[in-house]
Structures are given as structure tokens and as C-alpha cells.
């Protein structure tokens, strides 16, 4: 999974340069909307809303934006967002799993289909690719906010399967069912992750040629730029050679 972690770091750096904060803000506002609709506007009694607020802090979303999003979602006349997933194949047999949050399902599926038509991919049926991925809890914490020697045993007790350090960020991985207990433990330890989410981690990676891989990554970037798309997961191996090309 290290290649995927490295790519996350590269995207984080590129995102800052490319001023993609608005995309992050939009994603989190939708997450706040869904959380409030599900569990109410009080974060103390709504774990999903607490998580959304924590992630908002991680991307430096102003507090007033967060409060505005909570208040707007509390309005019974505000838009209702639906969470939907799409399982697809990119060229060269690469599996892509897409998570969306949308207020218009017809628009979203039409857009996703158009991307795959343009890049010679295909949409699969729901459930056709999910067996290729494991759902894991992923917590990203800046190195200077976590003294690993002091808390490592606490993190393992809370369900940490792996703790890795790359580019001044710790990544803690848990099983999906331990996501909540890890979030609770970090709150107890007063450690605030920059980002916490459930990700789909490929069980096996597919290696293809550099030029072919760059075309697949172009498709993935187009999908990620869609306002309705929250996450894009794939099973393509991100080799060091490919990562160097993507950094250019």
C-alpha cells in the first residue's frame, strides 16, 4: 500500500499548489450535510458529524464555514444528498471503485459514464468489483502531533494494524470495524488527525506499462475533479518510476 500512500502525499502537495481547497471544502460540506441529516446537528451525539468537523480542520476550513454548513443542513428544506458507488474498469483491466455524494443521481451517472466512454473504460454492476478491495480505516496524522513511543500500545489496543511514517505524516491503518474505536482513542489521547476516512485498499495490485498507467491516471484525475465524486480507489500498482512521472 506504500505506493498509494506516496501518491496521497504527492496529491496533498500538488493540491496546495493547484489551489484545490474548494474541492475539499465541497466534499466536506456534503459530508456534514449527510451527517446532520442522519444524526442531527450536535457533534457530541453524532460521531459522523464529529469526524466531518475533524476533517474540516485538517484542510483548514474556516470555523464559520463549518457552522454555516451545519445550520444549512439542519434546515428541513435544504438539499438531500445521496451516497452512491460505481464499480468500473479502466483500460488494461484496472479496477476502479468510485464513491459519490450527489443531489442528482441522473447527472452523476451520466457524467461517470461519459468519462469511461471517452477513455475506453466500462461500467460494471454493483458488487462486481467490491471483492477486489478491503475496507480499512485510514488516519493521517502529522508527525509533530503524535509521540509514537508514548501512545503506540494504546493505538494497537484500539485496533491499529499498521503504523507507518512517510514524509512527516504517520498513517494508521485499522480494520473497518475498528474505525470508531480508533477515532474514540485518538479523541481520548487528544490527538487530532489531519484526515480520517474509510478507504478501499486493493487486495492485489496490477502492474502495467508507464505510458498505459499514465493514461489510467489521467482518467482517475478527470473522475476526481467531478464535484459529485468523493473518493476514487483503484488496484493499479504505483511504482516508483510511475510516481516520479506523476510528480512532473
Which terms would index this structure?
248 residues; Arc Repressor Mutant, subunit A; Alpha-Beta Plaits; alpha+beta; four-stranded antiparallel β-sheet; single chain
Give an overview in words.
There is one protein chain. The chain is α+β, with helices and mostly antiparallel strands. It folds into 3 domains: 73 residues, Arc Repressor Mutant, subunit A, CATH 1.10.10.200; 78 residues, Alpha-Beta Plaits (2-Layer Sandwich), CATH 3.30.70.980; 71 residues, YebC, transcriptional regulation domain (Alpha-Beta Plaits), CATH 3.30.70. Helix content is 47%, strand content 23%. The strands form 2 sheets. A 4-stranded antiparallel β-sheet has the order 3-1-2-8. The longest helix has 19 residues.
Largest sheet: 4 strands, antiparallel
Secondary structure class reads alpha+beta
Provide the residue-averaged pLDDT: 90
| Strand-residue proportion | 15-25%
The coarse overall form would be globular
How are the strands of the largest sheet arranged?
3-1-2-8
CATH superfamily of the largest domain: YebC, transcriptional regulation domain
Quaternary assembly:
single chain
Number of helices: 9
The ordered string of helix (H) and strand (E) elements is HHHHEEHEEHEEHEHEH
Supply the CATH class of the largest domain: Alpha Beta
Amino acid at each position: 500500500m506504500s505506493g498509494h500512500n506516496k501518491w496521497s502525499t504527492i496529491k496533498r502537495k500538488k493540491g496546495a499548489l493547484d489551489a484545490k481547497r474548494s474541492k475539499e471544502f465541497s466534499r466536506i460540506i456534503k459530508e456534514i450535510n449527510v451527517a446532520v441529516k442522519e444524526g442531527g446537528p450536535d457533534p457530541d451525539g453524532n460521531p459522523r458529524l464529529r469526524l466531518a468537523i475533524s476533517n474540516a480542520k485538517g484542510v483548514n476550513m474556516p470555523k464559520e464555514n463549518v457552522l454555516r454548513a451545519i445550520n444549512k443542513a439542519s434546515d428541513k428544506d435544504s438539499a438531500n444528498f445521496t451516497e452512491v458507488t460505481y464499480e468500473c474498469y479502466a483500460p488494461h483491466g484496472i479496477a476502479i471503485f468510485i464513491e459519490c455524494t450527489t443531489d442528482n443521481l441522473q447527472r452523476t451517472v451520466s457524467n461517470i459514464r461519459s468519462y469511461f466512454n471517452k477513455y475506453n473504460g466500462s461500467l460494471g454492476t454493483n458488487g462486481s468489483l467490491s471483492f477486489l478491495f478491503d475496507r480499512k480505516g485510514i488516519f493521517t496524522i502529522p508527525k509533530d502531533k503524535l509521540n509514537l513511543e508514548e501512545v503506540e500500545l494504546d493505538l494497537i489496543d484500539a485496533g491499529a494494524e499498521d503504523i507507518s511514517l512517510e514524509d512527516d505524516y504517520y498513517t494508521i491503518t485499522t480494520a473497518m470495524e475498528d474505525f470508531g474505536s480508533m477515532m474514540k482513542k485518538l479523541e481520548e489521547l487528544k490527538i487530532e488527525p489531519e484526515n480520517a476516512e474509510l478507504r478501499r485498499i486493493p487486495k492485489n495490485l496490477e502492474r502495467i506499462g508507464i505510458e498505459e498507467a499514465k493514461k489510467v491516471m489521467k482518467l482517475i484525475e478527470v473522475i476526481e475533479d467531478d464535484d459529485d465524486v468523493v473518493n476514487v480507489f483503484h488496484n493499479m500498482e504505483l511504482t516508483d518510476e510511475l510516481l516520479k512521472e506523476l510528480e512532473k
